[in-house]
Amino acid sequence: MHMTKDEIPIKIDAPGAEARQLHGCGFAYGAIAAEYFTMRAGVDLAPLLQGLKDDVCDSAHWGYVVEGDVVVTYRDGTTERCRKGQLFHWPPGHSVAVNDDAELVLFSPQHEHTAVMDHVLGKLAGS
């Protein structure tokens, strides 16, 4: 499988952020979704995750920072910075804030992360 980011369907299109998600990209941990996120500097996902268990994303992610600089804050309060050119693994229990405009490629358990993204869509819609 190979494709450009523009071929990945848009799941979330919000001011300053776009998330693309392609289902069915692997099955080692159940169905895996391939995702391409574009987020502007200043975006903080924490408010959009409120209402989830512990107010964090409870899905694991494996990925690569194509552009930018993001800070990941974990459930226990620890943080780590991920920058352009770095591979990463974020275990369940995190939030993300963007320091510099960012583009990220993620591979996530489809069922878990789709539920988180649907929650975010609900928050963006005001529900």
Description:
The chain has 127 residues and is mainly beta. The protein has a single domain (17-124), classed as Jelly Rolls (Sandwich). It is 15% helix and 46% strand. It has helices at residues 46-49, 110-124, and strands spanning 10-14, 17-22, 32-39, 61-74, 79-83, 87-90, 94-109. Strands 1, 2, 3, 4, 5, 6 and 7 form a seven-stranded antiparallel sheet that branches. The longest helix has 15 residues, at 110-124.
Helix-strand blueprint:
Layout: E1 10-14, E2 17-22, E3 32-39, H1 46-49, E4 61-74, E5 79-83, E6 87-90, E7 94-109, H2 110-124
Antiparallel strand pairs: 1-2, 2-3, 3-7, 4-5, 4-6, 4-7
Concise overview:
The chain is mainly beta and 127 residues long.
